[in-house]
What we know:
The complex is a heterodimer of chains A (416) and B (169). By secondary structure, chain A is mainly α.
Amino acid sequence: MLDYITSYLSSNTTPGQAGNVFWALVYIMIVFGGVSVAVMAMNWLERKALAHFQIRLGPMRVGPHGLLQPIADAIKLLTKEDIIPAEADKFVFWIAPLIILCASFTVYIVIPFGPTHAITDLNIGILFMLGVSSLSVLGVVMAGWASNSHYPLIGALRSSAQMVSYEVAMGMAVVSAILMTSLNKTGTGTLSMIGIVQAQQSQQMWFIFKFFPLGFIAFGIFAIAMVAETNRAPFDLPEAESELTAGFHTEYSGLRWSLFMLGEYAAMIAVSSIAVTLWLGGWLRPFPNTLTGDTWDLVFSLIPGLLFLGLALIAFVGVVRMPKHPYFRIQTVGLAGFGAVLGLIGLILFIPPVRDRIQDIFWFSAKVAVFMYLYIWYRATFPRYRFDQLMKVGWKVLLPVAIGVLILTAIMGVLL
Amino acid sequence: MQPVATTFFFYFLSALTVLSGVLVITQKNAVHSALALIFGLLAQAGLYLMLYAPFVAGVQIILYAGGIMVLFLFVIMLVNLERAQKEEQFNKQWLVGVLAALALGGLLVAVYLKGGQLFPQHIAQPVESSNTQEIGVMLYGNYMFAFEIASLLLLVAIIGAVVMAKKRI
């Protein structure tokens, strides 16, 4: 038994490929926990950043700077009354949020956080991700239909039309990136997520810069289509609150509603991971080919620790600036403790073995985090599209451009 | 890597496929039928995975479960279900039904009993790690002509749909 557990540590693959059930389960739990924590952090960040965009303070009451707000929200949602409308289709109403949740969490088994830090590496990796994430639209449609109410049904219809339209442009953009993986000596490409990043490594170029501007345009199309796929602003017509209350999840409350939110944010992280893997070099650190040598390796490996120390510093600045009134004492102590934890994490990240193992995960997460911030930025900046404009952009702009990029990429690949 | 619990998963997925197939025709509500069909298609994708055909399984999920069934549901939701629920579910042509079922069942038994020679004796060992690449070589090499004909047919279907749906082009 112990041998079975330790045997994986010497193998240099993902637990899925090594066929080690124990470590696969451990990885699954780590990823599930990590994603759930990331969703909570994202929830807090979104409210806070949106508030600052609009010159408000955002959550300030629960914990220092509202840091405990997601936990308070979660407890509130868990203890709320769970209402099923009388005329609703009970079974479908019950299973719809589960389908969304399962679809958005299943894709994480192929996301490569590092060359060995993935649950498994499927031969059909990217196809699997696109397929399973497209199942979440079924959950949306079922939720809208089962509610047996007008707004949810309209929201579900809008959502299915929108997701089916944008999936086509998205798929075309993905294919042009996969085409680039085949530009090697053997001429065979790959669909495996780890293989795609390794192809970028061996071609010494992130695919966003490949055949400039072709890779960049394909990336741009994907970046637009993925916002539409996840029903986020400015493409959040299925849940446009000014017209449809909350769209397909109007009738949901309490725990079920929170499952929808969890699924939506998990799907956002998942599609951002696809973009990072396909075009932004996955787990590779910036400039892996030009800034080489031991010195640069050391400099880049120190960045995760320094980042956490910087966050700790910000927290301590917050402690100093906290009002001195006794009413704020608990908050001040809490913020200082939070800063101390961040600083401790930063110090742990400086230990050489940890530093080496954590590096790829750090760079992958940092790139995904940029996308998550972009989602909030879009929401604060762009007004919502009208539905006919949405369809026009999807079918008459993104799809032809994506097909054009695909053909040009193929021509360039043959010529060069 | 050695597969785990293969027999269990085979029976599990087969049972799921058969069960959802039965549910598709017995459910009175069209949306419930469509949902059962989705589960059947997903179980089928699992069976493809067990046959070392991951690419086919992926395409099954992305096209059938993710694409076609969404369009099915889209249409069903717009149809008046109230009237459909009042209509009779099964018609009275039981004689033809029994005959057709017997013929199909007889065919199945015949294939099961005598079909052994139709298949190659040794079990093929497909390489899972290069399954996609092999399918690509097949489609664009050996079966290039059939593949192009099929895509041309689809193109004709698309143009036909546009011509029929749009009054003035």
